[in-house]
Amino acid sequence: LGKCLLSPIVLAAYAYNRSLSELGPGGRGEDEPGALCQLFAFLMAFFGLAPTLLLLAMALECWLSLGHPYFYRRHLTRRLGAALGPAAAALCALFCALPLLGFGAPMQYCPGTWCFIRMAGGGPRQLGFPVLYASLMGLLVLAIVACNVSSMRHLYGMARRQPRRGAPPAAAPRMEELDHLVLLGLMTVLFTVCSLPLIIRAYMGAFAADFNENADLSALRFLSVNSIVDPWVFIIFRTSVFR
Fold first, then answer.
1. For residue 116, what are the β-bridge partners?
2. ∠ CA 57-60-62 to the nearest 5 degrees?
3. Alpha-carbon torsion 141, 147, 152, 155, what sign?
4. What's the pTM value of the predicted model, to 2 decimals?
5. Contact status, residue 27 vs residue 112, Cβ threshold 8 Å
6. Which of 25-29, 62-66, 159-163 bottoms out in mean pLDDT, i.e. has the lowest?
7. Is residue 178's pLDDT more than 80?
8. Measured in whole angstroms, how far is the alpha carbon of residue 163 from the centre of its chain?
9. What is the mean pLDDT of the segment spanning 132-154?
10. Which contiguous run of DSSP H or E holds residue 88?
């Protein structure tokens, strides 16, 4: 959904050879982002945070189902799972709308085909939101890594309890648990590597006054790579295909 909403805006900017601030109404240039640039910045922030929150929900579910199966069976229902997605999206939308209300400032970045929250060169009111955004992302990343590492430990323990040599029915579960272990490990490393650059750039821009648009662009590219590569990793290393 994020790719489908953001890509046409970028393609339109290239087609008309104009920046996002010039392309949308109300914008006069880099210092005055228009409505289209503000919408782009909101969508970038939202689709960076909302999938992370959903990944945390999935990691928590995996950890509870493996480590605390009785609690998981008793308290986690389909109704709760169905309500969790819209609730997470609503919370992320409210949080990412704060720059539109004055806490934080959207900014057009070079080469003028993308906008995001200003991460350097502003006052405390402008830089407070990116620090809060990066802190929330950092906490989510730590929680996801902790849940996934715990789930990997449970999977490894389950695989070791299976007999190494025996009938095929006994060997099949062990192979399946090791497949899930490899998949979970790869996705955890990929997610961590792709999320950390944005968190680091937000802190450097706020506290070290390091205004570097090329570094900011690289951090946003890393964040985008995660959403592109993650599904392919899941498809390729899915149990049946990988085996």
1. 107
2. 110
3. negative
4. 0.75
5. no
6. 25-29
7. no
8. 38
9. 85
10. helix 78-96
| Domains of the chain (ranges, CATH numbers) | 1-160+172-240 (1.20.1070.10)
**Which pairs with CB-CB distance under 8 Å and at least 24 residues apart come from 168-174?**
none
Instruction: Judge contact between 62 and 93, C-beta under 8 A.
Output: no
8 A C-beta contact, residue 28 and residue 17: no
168 upstream amide cis, omega within 30 of 0: no
Q: Taking residues 65-91, report their average pLDDT.
A: 84
Q: What is the mean pLDDT of residues 31-43?
A: 78
**199, 49 in Cβ contact below 8 A?**
no
Q: What is the maximum alpha-carbon separation in the chain?
A: 73
> Distance between CA 197 and CA 153 in Å, rounded?
27
Rounded to a whole number of angstroms, the CA Rg of the chain reads 21
Instruction: Supply 205's token pair.
Output: 């821009």
The secondary structure element, H or E, covering residue 36 is: helix 35-67
- pLDDT tens for 188-239 read 788 788 888 888 888 887 777 667 777 778 888 887 787 778 777 777 766 5
3-class DSSP state of 109: strand
